[in-house]
Amino acid sequence: MVAARESAHGVVGLVPTMGFFHEGHLSLMHRSVSECDQTVVTLYVNPLQFEDAADLARYPVDHDRDLALASECGVDLMVIPDPGEMFPTAPLTTVSVAAIGERLEGVHRPGHMDGVATVVARLFAALQPDRAYLGRKDAQQLALVSRLAHDLGFPLEVVGCPLVREQDGLALSSRNVFLGEHRPAALALSRGLMEAATMFETGECRAAVLEGKVRDVFRAGELEYAEAFDAATVEPVSRIEGEVVLAVAARIGPVRLIDNIGLLLDAKGPRADRGVFLERPSVLYDEPPATSHQPPTTNHQPPPCSSP
Ligand code: AMP
What we know:
By secondary structure, the chain is α/β, with parallel strands linked by helices. It has eleven helices and twelve strands. A hairpin with a 2-residue loop joins strand 9 and strand 10. Helix 8 (about 110-125) packs across helix 9 (about 140-150) and helix 10 (about 185-200) packs antiparallel against helix 11 (about 205-215).
């Protein structure tokens, strides 16, 4: 990572990921490439943020596929650190963004949010980006990283980017490839959110009613939470005012999924941010692409790339 930082110049955009890219990841890369001189993508399946060893073991990995997709976006550098490079000695330091990290995902995935915060802080320190591009798909994580950067004084801008959905509304996630027969049940998550969005835009501002709509529509699987919270503080709200996120998490068959919509009420009236819908099937379901582009430089050896 030291070499990666030394080779980057100008305004540097960072896209931190766990890999197995889909259009959600690619949208962050496109945005960074269009706004920055250099774009660095990190691919690190962070053991600290997996509370379940089986979930970590089966997380999809295909570095060659990811390199090809990143190169099509114009990414300059892909960094694939191993745990030994991230933390040469077992770290005694962890980062907790208490009030934000302890709620929702923090309750249902103990240790997860501290794991995210610790690794993101490590990446910010090592790569010193000017901008970090994160998806609103992980709205709590976006709030956590924004607050972390503010509190620790990292001189960078955290840029929140739109949530990208498959054509039928399912929020893109690398884990969607494991849904199989459970996919129709998973669609109830986004369906409930879309119905809540319409209710909000036609005047319903009570959080409990909107949360209830999401719960009513989702009947399959195990709903962990459906909650409206302030987009910056992640504090629960009872009425939608300002910028709010209505988020949901559920276990469906073998997969745990999260999804959300943004709800904004200001002087212009209520607006829902439903995210962006793909116009064709996701690359998640493609055969691995053959690269015709110059791949980004990487520290990953197998493809014909040089080490930074
Ligand atoms: P992950 O690899 O799942 O840790 O995600 C890496 C980054 O991609 C995070 O900033 C996520 O919020 C973002 N991301 C993941 N899925 C989506 C999506 N469907 N739409 C937009 N951003 C996403």
